[in-house]
Amino acid sequence: MSASRKTAATTAAAPSGDGAVVVDNIQLAKQSPLGVKIVRHFKRYGALWLMSLPAMCFIALFAYVPMYGLRLAFYNYNPREGLMGGTFAGFKYFNQFFKSGMFSNILGNTLRISLWTLVMASSARSSSPCSSTRSARRRSSPSCRPSPTCRTSSPPSSS
């Protein structure tokens, strides 16, 4: 045992009732160096980190990488200087868009499409014959009865 580990063991040790020294492993783990803690963590939870890696890459790719494009809205873009070049334009392009004659038409179309999508998605969900939110009256409709050939269907309720 190294000198630093001996001192940690003696400071974390407490005498028991019969005179033997009991080492507090939790206190020893807290006093271990950061590198040891990180290695221990990845040995213990490495599989979980590996499983979550595709999701983290997906989020990074589709949520954080496009933020560089957001910068283009506030700068005069010059292809020779790349994404990080150009002079700061402020709200110049936003003012230009809001003052254009097409702004009201574009805003109206966007709101109309969003509302239509919301209505159609909710009506499609509620109009399925065997939806989970069906009423008691629709429970006995012929379209929701289990198929005699399907073994996974539950028997009809006798209510």
Biggest sheet descriptor:
2 strands, antiparallel
Task: Spell out the helices and strands N to C.
Answer: HEEHHHEEHH
Distance between the termini: 73 Å
Unreliable stretches (pLDDT < 50, length at least 5) are none
Question: Could you tell me the strand content as a percent range?
Answer: 5-15%
Structural class, please? mainly alpha
Helix content: 40-55%
Tally of DSSP β-strands: 4
Mean pLDDT: 79
Rg computed from alpha carbons, rounded to a whole number of angstroms? 32 Å
Number of helices: 6
Spatial strand arrangement across the major sheet:
1-2
Shape from CA axes? flat
In brief, what are we looking at here?
The chain is mostly helical and 159 residues long. 52% of the residues lie in helices and 6% in strands.
